[in-house]
Amino acid sequence: MPATSSNPPVDTSRTIELLHSPLKMFGVLVGGVLMTSLSLVFVLPVFPELGSDPVTHAIGIVGTLFFGLCTLMIVRQWFTLEAVITISPAGLRDVRVAREFIPWTAIERLSTWSLQGQSTLVVAVAPAVESRLTLTRTARWTRGANRKLGADGLCVSAHGLKVDFAGLTALVHAYASAYEAPAAKAAAD
Predict the structure, then answer these.
(1) Which residues, at least 6 apart from 164, have a Cβ–Cβ distance to it below 8 Å?
(2) pLDDT in tens, 64-116
(3) What does the alpha-carbon distance between residue 154 and residue 67 come to, in Å, rounded to a whole number?
(4) Tens digits of per-residue pLDDT, 127-176?
(5) CB of 12 within 8 A of CB of 31?
(6) What pLDDT is stored for residue 5 in this prediction?
(7) DSSP string over 36-90
(8) CA distances from 23 to 28, 60, 85, 164 (A)
(9) Of the candidates 21, 1, 22, the residue with the CA atom closest to the CA atom of residue 11
(10) CA angle 104, 92, 170 (to 5 degrees)
(11) b/e map of 94-126 (b: 16 or more CB within 10 Å)?
C-alpha cells in the first residue's frame, strides 16, 4: 500500500487493540433504552387503548424482550475493558465474532458490505479454518442471514469503536498485505 499524505504507512509489526468508544456506546445505550421503553408502552396499561389489541400487545412483549436484551448486552460491553478488535502479525480478532485470531493466510477475501448506511468489513475465511473458530452466538445466528443478504463471510464492524470504518479497513488491508493474505495478493494483481 503506497503511502500518501492522507494515508501514512502503517507499522504492521506491532499489535493494535481497538476499544469501545464510551461516547458512541452511550448513544447506542440511549437508543436501546428508548426502544425498550417504547415497547413497554404497548405492554403496560399506560395507554389502555394501545394494549387492548392482542397483536399490538404481542409486538410490545417481543420488542421489550428484544430491545431489553440488546440494552443489557450494550451495558455489558460498555463495562468490558478488553479490546474489541485486535490486529496483529498473528492475524485479526474481533471478540464479537470469535475469540481466536484469524490468521492472515486463512483470509481468502476482504470486501465491504453496506446496508442502510452501515458499512461492514466482510472477511471470507477458508472453510477449514472457519469451522475451527469458536464463533459467538451472534456470529452463528447471523451468518446465514448475512450470506443471503450478500455478506458471505465473517462481518467485522467499526460500530461503537474508537475508529471509523475507513480507518479499520485501512488497517486490516495493510496487515493483510504485509502478511501475504491471499486476499491481499488478489487485490494487488
Answers:
(1) 158
(2) 999 998 898 778 777 766 788 999 999 999 998 999 999 999 999 999 998 88
(3) 24
(4) 999 999 999 888 888 888 888 888 889 999 988 888 999 999 999 999 99
(5) no
(6) 44
(7) HHHHHHTTSTTSHHHHTSHHHHHHHHHHHHHHHHHHHHHHHHHT--S-SEEEETT
(8) 9, 29, 18, 13
(9) 1
(10) 90
(11) bebbbeebbbbebbbebeebeeeeebbbbbbbe
Q: What does the alpha-carbon distance between residue 17 and residue 42 come to, in Å, rounded to a whole number?
A: 42
pTM of the model: 0.70
Sorted by sequence, the CB contacts under 8 Å of residue 124 that are 6+ apart come out as 107, 108, 109, 110, 111, 152, 153, 154, 183
Residue 181 pLDDT: 64
Strand order in the sheet with 85-88: 16-18, 85-88, 91-94
Give the orientation angle of helix 54-78 with respect to helix 22-41, to 10 degrees: 160
C-alpha cell at 173: 488491508
130 three-state secondary structure:
helix
Using DSSP bridges, classify how beta strands 154-156 and 85-88 pair: parallel, antiparallel or unpaired: unpaired
| CA dihedral (32, 17, 105, 6) positive or negative | positive
Q: Which three cell numbers stand for residue 141?
A: 445466528
Tens digits of per-residue pLDDT, 2-56? 444 455 677 888 999 987 776 777 888 899 999 999 998 888 877 777 657 788 8
Scored b (16 or more CB within 10 A) or e, 22-41 reads eeebeebbeebeebbeebbb
